[in-house]
């Protein structure tokens, strides 16, 4: 074929030569034909097997670099696999990229490589060509990475975490490397595929681990794992606790224990170093703390939590275990806006201060505590202190309840009793048709009103009525009771007015009635003693609510320093639903509910006292009394540093137990009050000491529970109270009531 081609070309050249020679004296020389084939060689970068005896193993895609030489020039370089063209290049330097990803690697029957013929052909510009061939093997199988001991999302922690894995390839491996968070960790060259991960050097949370395997054909396989590093113990919070919290009753601790990466293995509660309980697994993490099981004082509660990796965390909560003395519930509206300050404090029976709290306008509850043990025969005293200041002085009032056993009186529920608004209404109403002697004995006297006769210099007479309203509208009166007594005729009459009085009212005798009025007698029986004096007060209540709240109306109030032959007369009207009265016979005093009895016999008790350096020593005798009461009062203000200083102090105590009452120490918060100088100097004035007995209240604890606990008027609990008293004014009974007592 090549010979024929060469002959044809030669004959064409000769014909051309002769045709031209007829026109030219010098014919052109005949060119020599190019019959020399190009020279060719090729290589595959990165593969040295072409010069060795081994058959090269190629994969996926490779590059053939061709060295083609020809004096006439190279027209084309082509590559073939098994005579199938797979690439070409016509520009030096000659490189052909061949994709073999679609070729199978091995014979499925023999498991051996299939021989593929790689041929590179170079054609010069004259059409001469040269080829070179090379048997190649194709490996498109990737290495395999298996049995990796670290799983995706696995949580590990600590400095020792051995990770093992297997790597295989059908021919052989050129490299196996492991990476941690993108940084080369180790190149595995000895065929042992294991690596330790030290998580103590890692940030808690997600981290990446990668294995990279490359085979001899540069097939690359990677295995990526995102694992969780956890070197931190669980998080512990106890939102219900604050630093220094007082614990005075059993409470349940319910901490929030959580771990962002691991499972909670156990939670332990400790007091100091002493373990109290260990809770394991997925349970409710709670513990009931009984402060009674521990000594009073500051302590630390520790909560330790451990996760499944052994990471431990601990939280400390500083608390103070105290013994609760009492809870005082303060109702809305209890605070008197006229008071500058109101405190309550607890003291030991020897007067030492145990605790103090201030009561504000928005205070709803007060708790008092002690770091003393309160079991056995422990008792304490409770004192309320109120301070009222004015432009020319100040007044302090105290109320103390002694002999309190915390187990018998765990709480006091105060009531909003009478607290009058600062303003009041005073009106005068003209009178008509009255005998001048009668109108002078017209009076009105109730809890929130007062009234009586008045006359001007011209002889004009009027009736004035002053009305005051309680700050608590639930305690308002609905009616006003007027009483009129004719001493000449010994005639008692009364009138009942609506609270809202007609401004055009004219007070006339026709307003008054004697209907339902009865004159009665009571006998003061003195047991052979010489009679000196007696007094009586009789109150009426229009309904049960008025009775319970002591919203009283004065029916009769008189005293006698002589004994009428028939006995002591008084008048009562039946317009009321309930009655309360008190009678004094010399140094005997009794208060009872219902209509007065016919006779009264003083109790066979004795009472005496001495007062020195804020300590009252008491001597008494007799049975049946349960409550002692001491009344201290300045009577008239004392001038200290140019200010008028007034004070009042009521104390109650167990009359069957105490023969000595010590005034409590004054808290620092109260020592700035005006009375304190008098207290320091022991200058208080004791006005009265008494002992009392209550029907239906067998002992002092019964009094605390029935009267003090719910801030109740004693007469609503007991229908009969009897007292033996010693007053600084003989025969004068100082009632001295306040919000807590009487």
From TrEMBL:
Keyword Magnesium attached: no
First and last residue of the signal peptide: 1-24
PROSITE patterns, sorted: PROKAR_LIPOPROTEIN
Highest taxon in the source lineage: Bacteria
Gene3D superfamilies: Immunoglobulins
Pfam family, one: Big_7
UniProt keywords, alphabetically: Signal
Protein known as: Ig-like domain-containing protein
Organism, scientific name: Flagellimonas sp. MMG031
Lineage: Bacteria, Pseudomonadati, Bacteroidota, Flavobacteriia, Flavobacteriales
């Amino acid at each position: 074929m090549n010979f024929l081609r060469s002959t044809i070309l030669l004959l064409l050249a000769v014909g051309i030569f002769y045709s031209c020679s007829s026109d030219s004296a010098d014919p052109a020389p005949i060119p020599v034909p190019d019959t020399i084939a190009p020279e060719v060689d090729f290589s595959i970068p990165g593969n040295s097997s072409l010069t060795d005896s081994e058959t090269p193993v190629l994969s996926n895609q490779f590059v053939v670099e061709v060295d083609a030489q020809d004096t006439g020039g190279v027209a084309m370089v082509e590559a073939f696999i098994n005579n199938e063209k797979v690439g070409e290049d016509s520009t030096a330097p000659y490189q052909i990229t061949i994709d073999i990803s679609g070729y199978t690697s091995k014979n499925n029957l023999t498991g051996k490589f299939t021989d593929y013929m790689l041929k590179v052909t170079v054609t010069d510009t004259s059409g001469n060509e040269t080829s070179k061939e090379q048997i190649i093997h194709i490996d498109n199988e990737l290495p395999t990475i298996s049995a990796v001991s670290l799983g995706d999302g696995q949580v590990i922690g600590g400095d020792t975490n051995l990770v093992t894995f297997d790597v295989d390839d059908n021919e052989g491996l050129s490299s196996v490397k492991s990476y941690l968070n993108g940084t080369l960790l180790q190149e595995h060259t000895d065929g042992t595929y294991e690596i330790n991960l030290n998580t103590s050097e890692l940030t808690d949370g997600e981290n990446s681990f990668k294995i990279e395997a490359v085979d001899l054909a540069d097939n690359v396989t990677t295995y990526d794992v995102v694992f969780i590093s956890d070197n931190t113990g669980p998080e512990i919070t106890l939102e219900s606790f604050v630093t220094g919290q007082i614990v005075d009753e059993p409470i349940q601790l319910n901490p929030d224990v959580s771990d962002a990466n691991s499972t909670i293995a156990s939670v332990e509660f400790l007091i100091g170093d002493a373990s109290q309980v260990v809770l394991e697994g997925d349970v409710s993490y709670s513990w009931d703390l009984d402060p009674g099981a521990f000594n009073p004082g500051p302590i630390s509660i520790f909560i330790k939590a451990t996760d499944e990796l052994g990471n431990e965390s601990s939280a400390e909560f500083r608390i103070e275990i105290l013994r609760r003395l009492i809870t005082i519930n303060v109702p809305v509206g209890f605070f008197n806006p006229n008071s500058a300050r109101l405190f309550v404090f607890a003291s030991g029976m020897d007067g030492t201060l145990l605790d103090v709290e201030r009561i504000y306008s928005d205070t709803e509850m007060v708790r008092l505590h002690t770091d003393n043990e309160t079991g056995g025969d422990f008792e304490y005293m409770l004192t309320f202190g109120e301070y009222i200041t004015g432009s020319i002085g100040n007044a302090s009032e105290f109320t103390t309840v002694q002999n309190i056993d915390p187990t018998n009186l765990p709480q006091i529920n105060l009531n909003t009793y009478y607290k009058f608004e600062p303003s009041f209404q005073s009106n005068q109403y003209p009178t008509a048709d009255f005998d001048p002697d009668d109108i002078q004995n017209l009076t009105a006297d109730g809890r929130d009103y007062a009234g009586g006769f008045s006359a001007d210099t011209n002889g004009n007479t009027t009736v004035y009525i002053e009305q005051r309203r309680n700050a608590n509208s639930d305690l308002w009166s609905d009616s006003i009771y007027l009483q009129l007594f004719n001493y000449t005729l010994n005639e008692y009459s009364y009138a009942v007015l609506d609270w809202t009085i007609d401004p055009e009212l004219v007070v006339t005798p026709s307003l008054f009635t004697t209907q339902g009025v009865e004159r009665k007698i009571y006998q003061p029986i003195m047991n052979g003693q010489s009679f000196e004096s007696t007094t009586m007060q009789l109150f009426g209540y229009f309904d049960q609510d008025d009775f319970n709240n002591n919203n009283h109306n004065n029916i009769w109030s008189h005293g006698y320093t002589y004994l009428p032959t028939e006995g002591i007369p008084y008048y009562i009207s039946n317009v009321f639903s309930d009655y309360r009265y008190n009678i004094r016979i010399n140094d005997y005093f009794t208060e009872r509910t219902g209509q007065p009895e016919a006779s009264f016999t003083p109790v066979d008790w004795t009472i005496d006292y001495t007062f020195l350096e804020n300590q009252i020593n008491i001597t008494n005798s007799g049975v049946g009394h349960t409550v002692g009461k001491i009344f201290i009062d300045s009577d008239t203000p004392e001038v200290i540093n140019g200010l008028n200083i007034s004070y009042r102090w009521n104390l109650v105590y167990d009359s069957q137990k105490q023969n000595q009452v010590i005034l409590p120490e004054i808290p620092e918060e109260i020592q700035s009050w005006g009375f304190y100088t008098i207290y320091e100097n022991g200058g208080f004035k004791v006005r009265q000491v008494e002992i009392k007995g209550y029907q239906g209240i067998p002992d002092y604890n019964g009094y605390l529970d029935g009267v003090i606990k719910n801030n109740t008027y004693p007469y609503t609990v007991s229908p009969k109270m009897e007292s033996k008293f010693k007053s600084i004014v003989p025969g004068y009974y100082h009632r001295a009531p306040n919000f807590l007592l009487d």
